[in-house]
Amino acid sequence: MTDNLTVVLVHGAFAESASWSGVIAALQAKGVDAFATPNPLRSVTTDADNVRRAVESVGGPVVLVGHSYGGAVITEAAVGTDVVKGLVYVSAFAPDHGENSLQLTGQFPGSTLGETVRPYPLGDGTNDLIVDRELFPQQFAGDVPLDVAKISAATQRAIRDFALGEPQPAETPAWKTLPSWFIFGSGDKNIPVEGMRFMAERAGSLKTVELDGASHSSMVSHPDAVAELILEAVAHLS
Q1: Which end of the chain is more exposed for a tag (fewer CB within 10 A), N or C?
Q2: With contact defined as beta carbons under 8 Å apart, do 51 and 73 qualify?
Q3: Which molecular function GO terms apply here (predicted)?
């Protein structure tokens, strides 16, 4: 049994920590400690190092929650530490060793993300990527109120292309050794729903929730449902 679990949330590409605001409010209303830690979006390895330091600073057991590319980060960050007790994937990647986010995006048909991404050279042979701000609402947040989606488009954080193509480092990804839970929307235009079903089944998800028609921004459009699954994970681990 594990007491006093803290929920640490990790945003993904083209998002930022405030995307978890509704989920955090719902968790805190239930008396659960929760915070969103920054995700630099530079590489899986370095991003996971940042998250690992954050969870180890908590001083107690943690449930790690990742959205989108943040799923790849928590999959790596939970390796080699006994602080993390469980993983929750929110419209997120759960890569195996050697896989990467781009590969998993294209493994099943249906993603239209590539048509909306715009690159900005960084001068070292890599690029920062953003989702075209005009196209962001329909691509990323189709079930989010338009005024909110436009703000999300304007505040999105760029991701380095290397991060999306970097092979998952750990030979044994964390979902192979830790309990996991998955939630995602059937209307996701970034990661095909078949891909998320595949990853959830492969990981042995203890519970998988499909949100009818929900977009890739499921934590924004359905914060209570996401929080409810996280609370189930906390209860299971407590």
Answers
A1: N
A2: yes
A3: catalytic activity
Maximum C-alpha span of the chain: 50
Say how many CA atoms lie within 13 Å of 227 toward its Cβ: 21
How far is Cα of residue 142 from the mean position of the Cα atoms in its chain? 18
Sequential DSSP letters for 76-110? HHTTT-SSEEEEEEEEE--PPTT--HHHHHHSSTT
Q: pTM of this prediction?
A: 0.96
6 neighbors 62 (Cβ within 8 angstroms)? yes
- Cβ neighbours around 43 below 10 Å, total: 19
Sorted by where each begins, the domain ranges of the chain are: 6-237
Q: Return the CATH fold of 6-237.
A: Rossmann fold (3.40.50)
* Predicted local distance difference test score (pLDDT) of residue 25: 98
Q: What pLDDT is stored for residue 222 in this prediction?
A: 98
As given in the structure block, the two tokens for residue 157 are 């954080």
Residue carrying structure tokens 């896989």: 99
Query: What pLDDT does 221 receive?
Result: 97
Tell me what pLDDT residue 3 has: 63
List of the chain residues with pLDDT < 70? 1-3
> 136: helix, coil or strand?
helix
